[in-house]
Amino acid sequence: MSETIAVIDYGMGNLHSVSKALEKVAGDQKIVVTGDPAAVVAADRVVFPGVGAIRDCIAVLRERELDQAILEVAASGRPLLGICVGMQAMMSHSEENEGVDCLGIFPGVVRRFPEQVDEFGNRLKVPHMGWNQVRQSSHPMWQNIPDHGRFYFVHSYHVTDLPEEQVAGGCEYGLHFAAAAARGNIFAVQFHPEKSAAHGLILLDNFLRWQPGAA
Predict the structure, then answer these.
(1) pLDDT higher than threshold 80 for residue 1
(2) The model's pTM
């Protein structure tokens, strides 16, 4: 029996790009875009994409009871992938919008990039937008992707304060920040794999085949 992959629809993600990228690598797995908490909980694997303001994201998740569905999947052992604001929403707190408590799946805190300059004295623009290298920690989600591979980012806020063992990938933009987080059956990335060409598709393919806890 083929697996069902739920892409969470809470009205704010770039769902077309994410679902189309998944379809390219899915084989006989079924991609379902859904805002139904029951369908999310019933899926074999779940993708949680996100864009926009974290306050609105968390408010809609709670209003539609999708927050509880995400927490249930996180506790179930089934693979869960967070993308961009989806990753930030998995943290304990965000400083965006004067401070928002998030889902608390990870203990990290989300902070705005400070005003910075590079080694040549040029001001680093915020948002951090474009291609950047990601330094990998050991994790099956990086299979067949070279260390320091390039991925596409668009964000003004970054994840900090994660325990070292939960940082699955790091990136530099004036400062070092967590580009990927991992714990058990959960993997989350700040970049957009659906916009990251071949490396992004490989990562999505890895997610569709990842067996958390397997030897």
Answers:
(1) no
(2) 0.95
